[in-house]
Design a protein that fits this description.
Helix content: 40-55%
Order of helices and strands: HHHHEHEEEEE
Oligomer: single chain
Number of helices: 5
Distance between the termini: 192 Å
Strand order of the largest sheet: 1-4-5
Number of strands: 6
Radius of gyration: 59 Å
Largest sheet: 3 strands, antiparallel
Structural class: alpha+beta
Length: about 230
């Protein structure tokens, strides 16, 4: 038959088919296959069991060398830690905070002084208001003393203690004993009369009609006095 010859020729030309397993991992053992002939299967450089470890070591060595080169360049350029921009910025910020702290401290000291001054002023005003309110009582005691009602006895002792307490607050009495013969001062005395006198010089106090009171140089009440007009011509 005509086709029989062609089939024999086709069978004679067929060659056995062979396959080469190039997988790096052995599917049966799960191990990495070693390349044959000392050449890697992928045509690259030969890689041993420590290939990954060597790569990590090499990368670490490169990074260390780069860091060393950077430090060397900074040293050659004269850049130190004190001149680092970040460090310099922190130093400037610390100086600003220090100045702010000093300013706050100064303001607090001034505030304390102002509060203390205001407290002293308020205390002084309160004492003067109390003493001013007690002046009519002192007038009554002076009148009783002038009438001889406080010469002796328990009320005399109480009046003496009362005067002592008021003196402790700085109250000073301007009476006949203290003002007779003293120069007349319109800022502290109130002239009720002006009469000639041969015993008292002109513009000097002759007599006190009502006692005056002063505390620390401040007049609480002016003394009412009679002023000498001098000897008659």
């Amino acid at each position: 038959m005509p086709h029989h010859g062609h089939d024999e020729e086709h069978e004679e030309r067929e060659e056995p088919v062979s396959f080469q397993d190039k997988r790096r991992i052995d599917p049966e053992t799960g191990q990495v296959r070693q390349p044959t002939g000392g050449q890697p299967a992928d045509g690259g450089a030969a890689a041993g069991p420590d290939e990954d470890g060597d790569a990590l070591s090499q990368a670490e060595r490169i990074l260390n060398e780069a860091a060393a080169d950077t430090e060397g360049d900074a040293a050659d350029a004269g850049i130190t830690g004190a001149q680092d921009p970040d460090t310099a910025g922190a130093t400037v910020r610390e100086e600003e905070l220090r100045n702010d702290l000093l300013r706050v401290q100064a303001e607090f000291v001034n505030y304390k002084r102002r509060v203390e001054r205001d407290r002293n002023v308020a205390k002084d005003n309160a004492i003067q208001s109390l003493l001013t309110a007690l002046l009519p009582v002192l007038d009554d005691l002076d009148a009783a003393r002038a009438a001889g009602d406080l010469a002796e006895g328990p009320f005399a002792a109480i009046a003496t203690k009362f005067d002592t307490v008021l003196s402790g607050f700085g109250l000073e009495r301007q009476d006949q004993e203290h003002l007779a013969g003293q120069p007349f001062d319109p800022a502290q005395h109130e002239a009720m009369l002006r009469q000639p006198s041969t015993d008292v010089p002109e513009e000097h106090i002759v007599q006190v009609f009502r006692n005056g009171y002063v505390r620390e140089g401040r007049v609480l009440r002016a003394a009412q006095v009679m002023v000498s007009a001098g000897a008659e011509g």
